[in-house]
Amino acid sequence: MERAIASAVDGVLRGRREDGRWCYELETDTITGSEYVLLLHFLRRADDPRVEACCRRLRRQQTKAGGWALYPGGPVDPSPSVKAYLCLKLAGDDPEAPHMIAARDAIRRAGGLRACNSYTKLYLSVFGLWSWRRAPSVPPELILLPRWSFVNLVDFSAWSRVIVLAVSVVWALKPHVPLRVDLDELGVGVSVARPRSSSRKVLWLKVFGALDALFKVYEALGPLGLWRRRALRAVEVWMTTRIGNSDGLGGFFPGMTYGVLALRCLGYEESHPLVRSQLEALERLEIEEDGEMRLQPCRSPVWDTALASHALLDAGVDHQDVPIQGAMEWLLDREIRTWGDWRTKSRSDAPGGAWCFYYRNDFYPDCDDTAAVLALLSRIRGKARGLDGRRREAAARAVNWLVGMQNPDGGWGAFDRGCDREILTAIPFADHNAMIDPSTPDVSSRVMAALLDAGLDPAGEPIGRAIRYLLRRQERDGSWPGRWGANHVYGTWLALEALTPLVSRLAGNGRDRLEEPCMRAAWWLAGFQNDDGGWGESLGSYENPGTRLRGGSTAVQTAWAMRGLAAVAGALPAALDRSLDRAVEAALERGCAHLSSTQGRDGVWRDDEWCGVGFPRVLYLRYHGYSRYFPLSALAAYRGLRSRPARA
What we know:
Layout: H1 2-14, E1 26-27, H2 31-42, H3 49-61, H4 78-90, H5 98-109, H6 118-126, H7 158-173, H8 199-221, H9 225-243, H10 253-265, H11 273-283, E2 286-289, E3 292-295, H12 301-314, H13 322-333, H14 367-379, H15 385-404, H16 441-453, H17 461-473, H18 488-499, H19 509-527, H20 555-571, H21 578-598, E4 612-615, E5 619-623, H22 626-642
Antiparallel strand pairs: 1-5, 2-3, 4-5
Helix pairs in contact: 1-22, 2-3, 2-4, 2-10, 4-5, 7-9, 7-10, 10-11, 12-13, 12-14, 12-22, 14-15, 14-16, 16-17, 16-18, 18-19, 18-20, 19-20, 19-21, 20-21, 20-22, 21-22
C-alpha cells in the first residue's frame, strides 16, 4: 500500500502546472464535436480541417448498435445520433455505406427525428432540416417578464438561463443556412416509450403545449414588433455583459456555440471582438490527437486544483510544501468577489466570496467548488503571513456566501438558491432535464462538511437544517442519490463524510438520530462490493434505479465507496454493531487490494467507465483527473485507519 500511495502521489504531482494549478481533460460524448462541425458550417467554413478531424472521431465512436450513445456502453440516443449522422453526410460519407445504413436504422429504431430533444430540433431548424413551426417556442420576451410573473428567468437554473436567452435570439430571428443534404430518411421512426410522468406533470405539459401553440399564432399575426425589439436588445445587453466577465458565455460549450449563433443573428460580424472571443474560447476546448479532434464541454481548473490538493494532503504531503502553497495562492487569486446572478435570491449581504468551476466566470460561482476550496483553506495555513491573512479572510467570506445560499429546505443546489419550481420542467423547451437547480444530497453534503471544517457550530441552525434535509433524502435501502457523480455510491460517500463526524460532536438525540442512518448506509455500501474487491455503478442507474450500484468495478467509484466506509469506521463506535465493524474492515481491505492491483506503473488508474454527470439522462462526463486523485485519497484514508489504535 505504501508503494501504491507514493506512486500515486508522484502521478498527481506530475499533473501540476507551473502556476500551481491542476486542470485535467473533461470528456463528454460526441455532441460537442457534432455541434462544432455544424457551427463551422453555419459560419461557411465547411472546408476547415477541423471538420474532418471531428468526423474521424464520430466514425470511431459509432456503437455496434449503429448509433451514438451518451456514454460508453449506453443505449443509442437519437439526439447525438442525428447530429453525428448529419455531420457524416456533410463530410461526404456515402449514405449507402454500411456504417451509414447502420446509423440510419439505429436512429429510426430510436424514434427518428421526432424523438430528438428540443435543442437538437432548433439546431436542425437553422439548417432548414426541421420546421421552425414544429420547434418549441423560445421567446426572447421572457427577459421582460417581472419576477412575480408565473414564468420568469429568475426561476430557471443558471445554465438554462444562459442557453435559453442565447437560443431565444436564434428562435426569434430564425436564420436559414441551407445545406446540400437533407434528413428526409430519418423523418419516420418507430414509437418510443417515454418516461412516465405524474398526473400533475402531464397536466402542465398540456397547458404549456397549448400556450406554445397560442404564442406561435399570436406571433404570426405580427403584433410583437415593439416588444420583440425591446426583448432582443435586453438579451443582447445581458449576453454581452456576461461575455465580458468570463472565458466564454456561461463558461461551457453550449453557451459559447449558441452565443456565436445569437451574435451573428444580431448582426455582429465574425471579426467582431465579441464573436472572436467566443470562437477563441471554443478553440481552447479543442483536443487534437491521432488526427482526430474532440471538444471538452468546459474546463475544470478550480475543481481539479482543490481536489488534487486534498488528495495530496490526505496522503501526507506537508501543507507548507510548494505544491499546496502554490495551489492555495492560485485559488485565492481566483476568488470571485462581485455580484452575480445568484444575488437575486441569496441571503448573503456581501458581493461574492466564492469560486467557479472554470478559469473565469464571474457571474456564476457555484456551491460545490466553493465548498471544496473552503475545505482546503480550512486544512492549511499560508507559509507567508500575508498569504495566511488572505486565506482567513477568503474563508470567512466563503462561509458567509454558502450560508446565504442555503435553500429553505435546508440543502444546497449548485448555482442558485430557491431554484426548484418543478412546474418549469413541463415547458416545451425544457426537455434537456436541467431546467431547475434544486437541493441535492451530494452538493449539500459537501457544503455541510466544509462549513463544519471551517468552524461552524454543529448544533447551530444552518447545520441542523442541513442534517434534517439529508435524513429526509436518504433512500429506504440506506443510500443517497448523486446528482453530479454516478450515482448512489457518490451521494452515499459524501453524505457519510458529512454526517459521521457529527456522531461524536453532538449529544443526546442529535447523536442518536444519526447513528442508525449511517449504519444503514454502511451496510448498503459493503453489501454491493464486487467479487474483485471494487465497486461500480453504471450511468444507466439514472434511467433504471434497479441497477443502482450494479456494474463493473471502477477505480473512482471504488475510491468513493472506500471513503464512505472509512468515514463510518473512523467515527462510529465499534460497540454499536461489531458485525458491521468487521464487515467494513473486510470491505476496506479488499478495496485496498483492488486499487493496489489495478494501479498503472505510472501511479495512475484508468477507468473505461464514466462516472461524471452533467445532466442526468442528457449529458455525462469523464473527468480524467478523478482516476488520479480519488484512489490516492481512498488509500490514504485506509492507511490512516490502520494506524489508529483499536476503537472501543
